[in-house]
Amino acid sequence: MKTKFTKALPKIVSAAEWQIARDRLLAKEKAHTRASDALAAERRRLPMVEISKAYQFDSTNGKATTKMQLPIRLFSSSPCIAQAVLPSAPAR
Q1: The CA-based dihedral angle spanning residues 71, 75, 40, 48, taken in that order and rounded to the nearest 10 degrees
Q2: Res. 33: pLDDT tops 90
Q3: Which residue in 54, 88, 46 sits closest to 70, CA to CA?
Q4: Are 30 and 22 in contact (CB under 8 A)?
Q5: For residue range 2-18, what is the model confidence (pLDDT) as tens digits?
Q6: Domain extents in the chain
Q7: Are β-strands 62-65 and 56-59 bridged in parallel, bridged antiparallel, or unpaired?
Q8: From the CB of residue 82, how many other CB atoms can be counted at a distance below 10 Å?
Q9: Cα–Cα dist 51/82, whole Å
Q10: What CA–CA distance (Å, rounded) separates 2 from 4?
Q11: What is the pLDDT of residue 84?
Q12: What is the pLDDT of residue 13?
């Protein structure tokens, strides 16, 4: 049974036309990477919330607590998680 392709393949062009299209795409990819790097840097500069309560976690090395400087990352896109984990976190 043969599979029928429903999407058209890209057109066939000369090597010079392909290079122009590739260079345009590369410029967009580089801009995307720069924007992504800038967003990640901004995320790293977010202010921190002091954790006053001692939380205990199971780790590969046994028990770990927040007093041991265990890094905890809360995603800023989900403030409800931060509120559930850290009740003193500011609600949005």
Answers
A1: -50
A2: yes
A3: 54
A4: no
A5: 667 678 899 999 999 99
A6: 13-45, 48-92
A7: antiparallel
A8: 19
A9: 12
A10: 6
A11: 55
A12: 97
Confirm whether pTM is higher than 0.85: no
Are the C-beta atoms of 82 and 67 separated by less than 8 Å?
Answer: no
The length of the chain, given as a count of residues = 92
- Name which of 52, 35, 53, 51 is nearest 43 in CA terms: 35
The Cβ of residue 74 has, within 10 Å, a number of other Cβ atoms equal to: 16
3-state secondary structure string, the chain? Answer: CCCCCCCCCCCCCCHHHHHHHHHHHHHHHHHHHHHHHHHHHHHHCCCCCCCCCCCEEEECCEEEEHHHCCCCCCCCCCHHHHHHHCCCCCCC
Question: d(Cα 38, Cα 35) in Å, to the nearest integer?
Answer: 5
Q: How do residues 37-63 score in pLDDT, each as one tens digit?
A: 999 999 889 887 777 777 777 778 888
